[in-house]
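User: I'm writing a tutorial on reading structure tokens. Could you give me a worked example: one chain, its sequence, then its tokens, then a sentence or two explaining what the tokens reveal?
Assistant: Sure. Here is the example chain.
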Amino acid sequence: MNIKTLLIRSLSGLVYVSLIVSAIIIGGAYFMVVFGLLVGLTLFEFHRLTGKQGSVDALQILSAIFGVILFVVASRISMFSPFFLLVFLLGFVVCCIVELFRNTPARTDNIAYFLLGQVYITMPICLMYEILSYNYIVLLALFVIIWASDTFAYLAGSLFGKHKLSPSISPNKSWEGVVGGLIGALLTALVFYLTVLEPMACEITVSPIRWLIFAVVIVVFGTLGDLLESLLKRTVGVKDSGHIMPGHGGLLDRLDSVIFAVIPAAVYIFIMSIIC
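And here are its predicted structure tokens:
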């Protein structure tokens, strides 16, 4: 990697991280705009990716618009409200009606990918808003732990990687990278606990052990989310999901771990809130 490529990669990564962190901390309308854009652009990217399978031609723009509408509904009411479910079902009905009158060879596949995009991308990002409403620090920690895991996994894999994690899906990922990512994420989570959570004990009460278990859950499912996206890319024969982030690929390449990890993380938070 030459200096110019490194600088471009670093700059685009800095912009991405700055947008995510500032949106979480500021919240409100700013969060809705940033994460609403993430929903729409990532869905559009997802359908362009799946559209490379030849007969598949899902409705990219309709899916992106519908995903943003779902996100707005979730942020205004709740994704757990009956109205959210009704809006989701209405989107399914609209998609089916449109596909009935399209002259495409794989209409049922298009409907299936339309639904998959909403479940795979929109729902997890809506869930992020629920976590933000619970406490923005928890959502911030989710992203920080994922970023630490990715960084340390890359370093450990580059230096010590010998045993492949899943050669048929992602030949570059190794078990050494996974272990390195886990160790780095646990250290980051511990520092986060000592510097952020402990001073805020009046707002969030959690033991160090439970917090580290939270980090383990994020890393394990984040790694699986990374593999899932790698499977998708290998299926359609591409290296990156897109090119919106120079040096990094697409938005889905950056969000693959967190959108998969946020679901078990939210379940863990819910269980801990009941126990406590």
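What the tokens reveal: The beta strands are 164-166, 170-174. The first helix runs from residue 3 to 26.
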